[in-house]
Request: fold
Amino acid sequence: MNLPSINKQCFVASETLNLVNASIRDLKRVLDASVITSVQLVTIYLQRIAKYDCNGPSLNQIPVPNPKIFEEAQASDNYRASVEGLTVAAGSPPFADLNFSCDATIVSSLRKAGAIVLGKTNMPAMAGGGGQRGLYGRSKSPYNPKYSTTAYASRSSNSAGTPTTASFTAFGFAGETVSSGRSPASNNALVRYSPSRGVIPFQGQWPLYLTCDVIVPHAQTVKELLDILNVIMTDNPNPIGDFWRGQSVCPIPLSSQVWPVDCQSLEDPHSLKGKQITIPMRYIRKQFPTAVNALNAFTSSVHDLWLKAQTTLESLGATVIPWPEHRHSLNAHSMDEHRTMPDDHYWMGRFPPPNGDTSYPNLTVADADMIHPHIAPMDDPTMHTEVENHVRYMDMIEAGRYQGPREMWKRDLEDWMDSNSFNLVVFPTNGDVARADSEEL
Reply:
C-alpha cells in the first residue's frame, strides 16, 4: 500500500468530525464543501479501524483492506479507481489468492457516485453455515464479545453489519441467501433492505444458492438506506454472472420499471394504513401455545419485542393477522429442485464468471473438500442443519436442471398471499442472541 504523506490536517479533521454520529449526507456535505478531503476521511476511518478492529476489542471485521485505498481516495474526483488486486476469497482457503479484474456492478455504481471501498469484511467459507471461523478467523460483536454479531447457522455475512454500527464505514453490504443480511442488521441495530430477485444487480457477487442470493445494503437510518438504493439500483445492460438477469425462463421487469426515480419519495408515514399483515403462529407461541410446529427457540424477550412491533404496526393503521402454518413435504433433493434452473443459466461449474484470473477459470479447479473445510466441531452441516439445506458443491456442478423455483415461489408465496389478501408477512429475525463460540459447543 502506497501511503501518502499524512499531515497534521488529517488529525485536525478527525477531531472535528465524529464518525459515530455522521450520516452519509453529513459526509457528502463536508466533502462537497472541501471541509475535508477523501484522503483525510479515509485516514480517519483507518484510524478507527486500527483502534477497534486491529487492537483494543479486536473485532476482526475487515481482514482484507483495500491495498489501493489512498490512490482511490486521491482519484475519487474522477471516480475511475480500480479494485484489481483486492482478493475475493469469500472466506474459503482455495480462493485466498483469487483476484477479479473488474468491479462488481454495485461497486462500479458506488464509485461513479464518489464512494471509496475501504475493504472486504469477514465471513465463513463460501457463506456456508453460519458465523463460524473462515479463512480470516471469526468476527466479534462490538456490543459484547461473548455473544455473536449475528444469528448462528444463518449468518454467512456475519461481519457485514458490525463495521457500519461500529462506524468503521458509512454503510456496508451483505450477501443473503435466507437471512444473512437481515440477521447481522438485527444484532447490530441497523436498517437493511433485502430485495426481490434482480432488483439490485448481482454481478460480481459470490453465490451460495444462485436462485436465492441477493445483495443487502446496511445503513444506520432509513433515509441513508434510500440514498444508497438511489445509487445501486440500476439496470445492468450486460448481466454476465448475474443469475436472474441472465436467465430467460422467468421474465423479470427492470428495476427502473417498478421503482421510482428517487427512492426518497417512498418515505410515507401512512404507507401501512389499511394493509393486512400476517405472522405465522409458530413464531408467537406465547400467544398460541398449541399452534402446529410452535417453535420453542424464541425467548420471552424476543416475544416481548414482537408485541412492541405489533403495537407499532397497528398504530400505523395495519391489521395484524396470525396464520396457522402449513408446510409441504421436503426431502434431501427437493430443495435442490426448487432452487435450480434449466440449462441456460450460469451454473456453479461456470463460476466465477470471466475475470481475467487464469488460475481460477471455474469452480472445478478448486479442492472441493477445502471449499468449506470443517474447522470447528460444529462446522459440519450434517450435525446442525436440516438435510434440504446442505450445500453439496460437486453435486451442484454435475446436477441436472429443474423447472422449480418459479412454480414454488408462485404457489407458496404469491398465490397464498393473494388468496388471503395479505400485503405483508412478518416474523422475528432472531430467536435469541447466540454465544460467540457456538460452533465449539
Summary: The chain is about 30% helix and 5% strand. The two ends are 40 Å apart (CA to CA). The mean pLDDT is 76. The beta strands are 64-65, 119-120, 172-176, 191-192, 214-219, 276-280, 319-323, 424-425.
